[in-house]
Automatic annotation (TrEMBL):
The UniProt record lists the keyword Ribonucleoprotein: no
Pfam families, per the entry: EryCIII-like_C (PF06722)
Gene3D superfamilies, A to Z: Glycogen Phosphorylase B (3.40.50.2000)
Organism field: Williamsia phyllosphaerae
Keywords: Transferase
Protein name per the record: Glycosyl transferase
Length: 414
């Protein structure tokens, strides 16, 4: 029986995409231990895997850009990664000694855990639920919200901006990161994405139409497609009782400055004949007022709502966006940072939704964007036919087992 040790960043958006893969591996006979958010430990155990909580200094950490105003701060993000690195490294190294795994899995944001996995000498893999932060000139750099293109001008743009973006990240991150790596006798990296490229396997839980394989990615990258897993919940009678067309409004589950989206949507949707179901995520739902034609809650199982949803209004999180795309539901995306601008521009370019700049967000502009998005329903349904909506867990588990098998073969030969 293979023993697999898994460590996540303190974010449900990074944990949930890999859960179905872990359950699949467990069903195939592997022993799984997950180190994750304290309030997710019992849920993981209910799924048949052992679990323990991240140490408090990690469990309570916020993303480095959570106070942002929509303009992504490279320095804030990289400082957050470095600030967590030491605690991640120490905790995972201790768990490796205790659990004695055959393989280690970490998410793309767990920089210190990646280094501990690298230092262990064991097979390891990284999973990523969004655009991979790998240097590439085969498309625009992530974070800028640029529309991909294949023309000569677009290729020239992508090459120039990719090198510029890489230089900015390396000024903000590389020297600090290398100083920290030296404290653990790890070799310096030449480029910021080098730790990812050293992983024997990189699993991308993303796919068309938002992401396609880049020609200059390493062979270790596998696009397995999105995971639709979400915590099992009972249907909400209040949601089931809604008879009007539903507009699902979602804010991020990781703290960011997106409160304006929920408040503006509640105002914009009044009198439209649609019922607004607003999930506030990391925000306090009591800060918003429900009406006869709206329901405000922190969380709701999206699967229970999407079946009767006419339009999704969202910050542009990869999870809800890919679920809507797979169901052919048009979107209005108001991106506030992180990967959201890239999600928004690709959805808009693909014809299945509308992008609205948060600086232009008013009840009037949002209402107009909803009308435009609803007019793209047929195109959204066409796009749904190319979304790899099922099978990602089996594909990911197959790749993990391939890495384990290669290690066993290598050990046997040695």
């Amino acid at each position: 029986m293979s023993r697999i040790l898994v460590m996540t960043s303190p974010a449900r958006g990074l944990l949930y995409p890999v859960v179905e893969t872990l359950v699949t591996l467990r069903r195939r006979g592997a022993s799984i231990h997950v180190i994750t958010l304290a309030d997710e430990v019992d849920r993981m155990r209910e799924l048949g895997v052992t679990a323990s909580a991240l140490p408090p200094e990690l469990n309570d950490a916020h993303p480095g850009d959570w106070k942002g105003n929509g303009r992504r701060s490279v320095g804030a993000l990289t400082d957050g990664l470095i600030d967590r690195a030491e605690a991640e490294f120490r905790h995972l190294a201790s768990m490796i000694s205790t659990y004695r795994p055959d393989m280690i899995l970490t998410d793309v944001s767990a920089t210190g855990a990646q280094c501990a996995a690298e230092a262990s000498g064991l097979p390891w893999a990284i999973w990523c639920p969004t655009f991979l932060p790998l240097f590439s000139t085969d498309g625009p750099p992530i974070g800028l919200g640029l529309r991909p293109g294949t023309s000569r001008v677009a290729r020239m743009r992508d090459t120039a901006l990719s090198h510029t973006s890489r230089a900015i990240w390396e000024v903000a991150f590389k020297n600090k990161f290398n100083r920290w790596r030296r404290t653990h006798d790890l070799p310096a990296v030449r480029h910021c994405d080098e730790p990812l490229r050293r992983a024997p396997l990189i699993l991308s839980f993303c796919g068309p139409p938002l992401e396609n394989r880049h020609a200059d990615w390493p062979d270790t990258v596998e696009l397995v497609g999105p995971s639709s897993w979400a915590p099992p919940t009972d249907p909400d009678p209040a949601i089931d009782a809604i008879t009007d067309p539903i507009a699902l409004v979602t804010c991020s589950t990781e703290l960011q400055a997106d409160a304006a989206l929920a408040g503006t949507a509640l105002t914009a949707l009044e009198g439209t004949g649609m019922h607004a179901v607003v999930t506030t995520g990391a925000l306090d739902p009591d800060a918003f007022s429900s009406t006869a034609t709206s329901t405000v809650t922190r969380f709701v199982a999206h699967e229970h709502v999407l079946a009767t949803t006419s339009v999704v209004i969202t910050h542009g999180g990869m999870g809800i966006t890919q679920k809507a795309l797979a169901r052919g539901i048009p979107l209005v995306i108001v991106p506030f940072g992180r990967d959201q601008r890239d999600v928004a521009v690709r959805v808009h370019a693909g014809g299945s939704g509308v992008r609205l700049d948060p600086r232009d967000l008013t009840p009037e502009t949002l209402r107009a964007a909803v009308t435009t998005a609803l007019g793209r329903t047929e195109e959204a349904r066409r796009v749904a036919s190319i979304v790899p909506a099922v099978g990602s867990a089996d594909r990911a588990a197959d790749h993990i087992e391939r890495v384990l098998a290669a290690r066993r073969t290598s050990d046997a030969v040695a």
